[in-house]
Amino acid sequence: DSFPIISEKLKGSDIVLTEVEKDSSRIVNYYNKRESSDQINQILTPSDIDLIKKILIYSTVKDINKLTPGELFAKLSAYYDAFCLSPTDTKLRMDDYIQFLAKENNKQQIYFESDTLQIELLRKGTAQIDWNIFKKNIKLLLDKYKQPNPKISSNSIYGKYVTFNLNYSFDDKCGGEVLVEKRNDEWMTKISTLFKKDNCFMAVGLLHYFKRCGIIMQLRQLGFKVEPILMH
């Protein structure tokens, strides 16, 4: 809302494209089918477990024992910047808010993936993190949260994002990241078709725009004109 041009473009579109439709009941059912693991209770103190539950208070998954060590570590890593900005109010995340605005303005919404597919991709993409690796790295991560005044690093991807200090590295090759490159290629079929016939507003995770395999470069290679706009 601090950048009115974003909502202006959304309201002027015919279709709003986002990564995945969030259905909390479906996500909860997906995780509830898993067996619970007691590993985290053997690794962390009760106070550290309470801290993790506080960090993930607005997460759809309430039982952290249903998460793999990789999923849990990834979530805690990703939530840090949001926790720094607003430790007590992280209920509505960017994707959810854009979908809310689309619904409020009666826009057709199209999603690239199902929520359960995205969970599976996260599980596969973090499978290399087992409980031993989790145990070696979790203390340092939680210590960041325990700082009296946690701050976002200006060198972090989020720090660069909020200051408009991004390098999209369009000349760099991609490294086959399962959570980015493969999905970009799959999404591009739908994106290119829709962009040719409809006025679309698209919002997906920042890393999907980076490098040669990113959506921006793929659109340009298809002949689309892609330009930045002034935010103020």
Please outline the helices and strands.
Blueprint: H1 4-11, E1 15-20, H2 24-32, H3 39-43, H4 46-55, H5 69-85, H6 94-104, E2 108-113, H7 115-125, H8 131-146, H9 157-162, H10 181-197, E3 200-203, H11 215-221
Parallel strand pairs: 1-2, 1-3
Structural write-up:
- By secondary structure, the chain is mostly helical.
- The longest helix is centred in the first third of the chain and has 17 residues.
- The chain starts with a helix and ends in an 11-residue tail after the last helix.
- The mean pLDDT is 86.
Quick gist of this model?
The protein has 232 residues and is mostly helical. The chain is 50% helix and 7% strand.
List keywords for this structure.
mainly alpha; 232 residues; single chain; three-stranded parallel β-sheet
The side-by-side strand order for the widest beta sheet comes to 2-1-3
| Radius of gyration, whole Å | 19 Å
Class based on secondary structure composition and strand pairing: mainly alpha
The low-pLDDT segments are: none
Helical content band: 40-55%
Name the overall outline.
globular
Sheet with most strands: 3 strands, parallel
